[in-house]
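Render this sequence as a predicted structure.
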Amino acid sequence: MGLDRRQLLQMSGGALAAAAAVPAHAQVAPEVAAPPHAPQPPVDWSRVRSQFVLAPDRVDMSAMLIASHPREVRNAIERHRRALDEQPIEYLEQNNRRLQNAARQAVGRYMGLPAGDVALTDSTTMGAGLVYNGLLLRPGQEVLTTHQDYYVTHEALRLAAMRTGAKVRRISLYDRLETVTPDSLAANVVGQIGPSTRVLALTWVLSSTGLKVPVAQISQRVRAINATRPADQQVLVCVDGVHGFANQDVGFQELGADFFFAGCHKWLFGPRGTGVVLGSPAGWSAMAPTIPTFLDSSAYSNWISGAEPQECTGARLTPGGFKAFEHIWALSDAFVLHEWAGRKAVADRTAELADQLKTGLAAMPHVTLWTPRSRELSAGIVSFDVAGMSANQAVAKLREWKILASVAPYARPHVRLTPSIRNSPQEVDFALQAVRAMA
């Protein structure tokens, strides 16, 4: 039986109006956001949905683009904004470094690495620019990436090559997407590494097809290659991780990367205009900052004394300057919701909704599903085509149903629906009904 929007809201919308809040930490900004105790499974996902003020007459499946702030984040931004308006100089002086470090600690706790190895940025794009243009590359060294990577990776690498004299080489991740396996992807990528390869630039989850690249498996094979090389010739694995960050139950050490960068205003539902770079000891030793920082006090004292700058760290890579401080300071509050639910539960819920969507789409003769069905090879992005329609036409038709999808901005565009923990199975069914009606 088909669902109309009124029925949909009756089925899942009780949660939309529910006021059951995630337990809050103290109103005074803490050094580190203190997460409430995670609930015993199963998680009440209606409580998660109740934290958002998304328009109740729409089904928003565009989590991969830009977040709606959950309650904890909205409240923190407003608290900091009000204090800045009332006492701008005093509040800034008393809180800026402390709250940025609290955010770094929250990121480190969630991803399983020291806070000192976390840099704060504005976005995935800024992270890519800081990493690829900060790497100490030499003429003759090579950066290896893929044809399937996004514009941001390709452009950041082009600019880095112009500046350093290093070369960029692109390879194809696969011949046929429908036949890929984690082993074949890892073998193909690692098999292309040559003697001059210094950097391997990858994307964890491709925003075009939703393919999840087996980064951990690739990193493990790269470590075997690095064991035979001197330190300054070892391959550094750099990962655009934005579409796995906060929807996969994987930490930084498990990925095995040397650099990981992501925006926080997508799957994490963090403050808009925030992002992170995570680095390994090998990565930091091969990196130089691009933008002066104020987060590391020694950088300023080095300037005063004329001392040589120290090695790059997360603090040193964090750009300084005046910015939207209330958003940066609220980053630690984004983890409250995720830690309340639990990282594994969030990953499982995201996968369940994506599985439901992929299963329904795969059964439609007029739909071509591009995202692999396997959870090993996919995350939350679901990409597909509708016969007889361009991607833009299909997205526009979904908008008529008040379903928010997006178009993959690549040479070969696809329709993307990206269910997240703020969605329900009923909303997925409603989206499937709309796609079914396009036959």
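Summary. The two ends are 17 Å apart (CA to CA). The chain has two domains: 96-336, 343-436.
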